[in-house]
Amino acid sequence: MSRIKVGDEVVVLSGKDKGKIGKVIERIPKENKLVVEGVNVVKRHIRARRRGQESGIVEKEAPIPSCKVMLICPRCGKRTRIGVKITELAEGEKEKLRICKKCGEVID
Ligand SMILES: [Zn+2]
Hints:
Radius of gyration: 18 Å
Structural class: mainly beta
Mean pLDDT: 93
Number of strands: 10
Bound molecules: zinc ion
């Protein structure tokens, strides 16, 4: 699974939404997919199942493979791959931080 998290800003690398930028709103680790705000929007026809319920068309983001997006670094604003920095907090206690491969800054 990619190191992208919910809330990250990503850019789409290929497909019909190539170049689009959006926020990750959901991760689906099992399928290695992400749902990105405003990206890969599909129209779904909703049929009224109960009386009083309205039928119509709903637009919703469909998941895209996480390899199709790249993180936009919140520090330098460039698209980047994510590195990992492990810092030792105390004896035996380690913290994994994500770092930007472009500017080297810690992302979170
Ligand atoms: Zn950066």
